[in-house]
Amino acid sequence: MTESITMRTEGQKERVTQRGLTLWLTGAEETMRLGRSFGNVAARGSVLLMRGGLGAGKTTFVRGFAEGLDCREDVQSPTFTYVLEYLSGRLPLYHLDLYRLADEAVGELDWLDEYLFGEGVAVVEWSEYLGGYAPEDALFIHFMASEERDRRLVTISAAGHTACEVFAAWVSEWSS
Ligand SMILES: Nc1ncnc2c1ncn2[C@@H]1O[C@H](COP(=O)(O)OP(=O)(O)OP(=O)(O)O)[C@@H](O)[C@H]1O
Ligand SMILES: [Mg+2]
């Protein structure tokens, strides 16, 4: 871990809490381990909004995440289906990939809320395409490539009550 920031601001009606952290990951196995650690602590209703270019490591993270949830299925990339469900783990896992949405209207996806505000955990690749439909209570995971082929700079932050609780649990999990 290279840096850690904690910010708390008092909203007018409710307390808004944000937390964040940046770390380097070397090799796909380390990204899997990051995913696994989040899968271990994710709660019902957790939403993980991922960003990062092609090949940045998003699906690799989800593979680890599914393991952390004890899913038995192999994670595939849902690029051509928008969403794949994995139901064999501790909580239902909804894996969304909105890459092909780039030129379409996200508002026309009437099934979206079912996953983003559902009974399971939603992890979203290319979450930037959600625009204003992105849940406010969410974890944000941004993967950035580096000059070294196997290294990624990853920024993790959380906003909202539920996501911040999961974030705090994850910090203990990751540093243990
Ligand atoms: N530190 C790393 N973290 C994650 N992946 C890495 C890392 N180093 C190398 N890789 C490799 O980079 C590729 C990442 O592919 P992955 O499918 O996870 O990317 P993605 O972000 O889901 O891409 P896409 O936007 O096309 O879906 C894999 O081949 C993986 O082995
Ligand atoms: Mg992918």
UniProtKB/TrEMBL annotation:
One of the record's GO cellular component terms: cytoplasm
Stored InterPro entries: P-loop_NTPase (IPR027417), T6A_TsaE (IPR003442)
Record keyword NAD present: no
Domain of life: Bacteria
Subcellular locations according to the entry: Cytoplasm
Sorted UniProt keywords: ATP-binding, Cytoplasm, Magnesium, Metal-binding, Nucleotide-binding, Transferase, tRNA processing
GO terms for MF: ATP binding; metal ion binding; transferase activity
SUPFAM superfamilies assigned to the protein according to its UniProt record, in alphabetical order: P-loop containing nucleoside triphosphate hydrolases (SSF52540)
A GO BP entry: tRNA threonylcarbamoyladenosine modification
Coiled coil start-end: none
Pfam families assigned to the protein according to its UniProt record, in alphabetical order: TsaE
PANTHER family (alphabetical): TRNA THREONYLCARBAMOYLADENOSINE BIOSYNTHESIS PROTEIN TSAE (PTHR33540)
Similarity comment: family membership: Belongs to the TsaE family.
Protein name per the record: tRNA threonylcarbamoyladenosine biosynthesis protein TsaE
Organism: Ferroacidibacillus organovorans
Lineage of source species: Bacteria, Bacillati, Bacillota, Bacilli, Bacillales
